[in-house]
Design brief:
This protein is mainly α. It has a domain of about 45 residues. The chain is about 60% helix and about 0% strand. The longest helix is centred in the first third of the chain and has 18 residues. Keywords: Membrane, Transmembrane, Transmembrane helix.
């Protein structure tokens, strides 16, 4: 999910940089690029990728030997 948001942010940053515009308050295309990179770093760290499944249905439960 964070990767999709990062892609949207990168697209907005690209459009702002292409047009040469900046949003009042000092927000430019580079700000969107840095925000997108931060979101990609969070995605790679595993933030926001938790599964609803619990118990023996996750990957650790499948790797245990049953007796």
């Amino acid at each position: 999910m964070l990767a999709v948001v990062a892609a949207i942010i990168f697209g907005l940053g690209f459009l702002l940089d292409l047009v040469g515009a900046s949003i009042p308050g000092g927000i430019s295309g580079m700000t969107f690029v840095l925000l997108g990179l931060a979101l990609l770093a969070l995605h790679q760290a595993g933030v926001g990728t938790a599964s609803i499944r619990s118990g023996y249905s996750n990957w650790r439960g499948r790797s245990r030997a049953r007796r």
